[in-house]
Request: fold
Amino acid sequence: TGAGRVAASTAQLGLASRLWSVALGCAALGGVVPDLGPGRLWWRGPSAGPVELRLPGPRPLPGPLPEALHRAVAVDHLATLDEAVRGRYALSPQILRGNAASALVGAVRVLLDRVPNAPFPPVPLVEHLLARAPLAGTGTFLHEEGLGVAFTRRSCCLYYRLPAATCGDCVLRTRVPGRTA
Reply:
């Protein structure tokens, strides 16, 4: 149904946000990416609120930060999650990739707001991730020192189907009459 597709898109965006936040935060603040492999990352769906994530103990992924970030989130989690969501709710790959990119940009936005001088600058990492598959071509990313980041998607997350709602980086923001961000 339409409501199921919106809910699935929203859930996937939320999970992507949590994963990117953990991985990008560790990379920017500590110079390592934790091993978030499916056999190591524990998930719990509480009765209300976001999914809770837990690792049994720290273990960094080997390799350069951009590659480790890509593997930890895009490969080890989002590829499998997106396949399941597409199969069950008929969401397009463009929606799911756009959600993942939006989640990554949201993570860097919060990180820059809270730790503007992170030891390992996160913006080049994000630019690298947005330039490669599966996130390449999902939107326009801008970063201006002192002003922060901006992102405009090239796909829709389906929020517009909710009453008076669009997402903050909505491709439809200027196209949906009566709807604002």
